[in-house]
Design a protein that fits this description.
mainly beta; Immunoglobulin-like; 6-stranded antiparallel β-sheet; 3-stranded antiparallel β-sheet
Length: 118
């Protein structure tokens, strides 16, 4: 989602190879974003539907102004990495050279909320 005061989107997926979606074998997730008073909140709803893809990470790439004072995932503070790339197997955040905060975590297809505070 592009930076905006408020935005919403949905993402649909299925196995991409069969017609099982006709029997409900698909998943849809809703994404919402709000930006206000130096705070960015991005929520990802739990997957709806009977199908789930193979295990994979979910990566948030969020454009920010300045360096956040706090980054939290589901209310838990996420430490900043001193590297320039996300660290596989750990939840950390980085600020890349273009002004984007990057956070990557395992996707359990449950609800997630990422909050960045300036």
């Amino acid at each position: 989602m592009a930076p905006a005061t408020q935005s919403e989107s949905a993402f649909y997926e299925d196995d991409g190879a069969s017609f099982k979606f006709e029997q409900g074998q698909s998943m849809t997730r809703k994404f919402t974003q709000t930006r206000s008073d130096g705070r960015v909140s991005i929520s990802v709803a739990a997957g709806e539907g009977q199908w789930r893809p193979a295990a994979r990470p979910i990566r948030f790439i969020v454009q920010v102004d300045g360096v956040p004072s706090r980054v939290a995932l589901n209310g838990t503070a996420v430490p900043r990495s001193t590297g320039i790339e996300p660290v596989e197997g750990r939840v950390v955040w980085i600020l890349d050279g273009r002004g984007f905060v990057v956070v990557e975590t395992a996707d359990t297809f449950g609800a997630l909320t990422l909050e960045l505070t300036r």
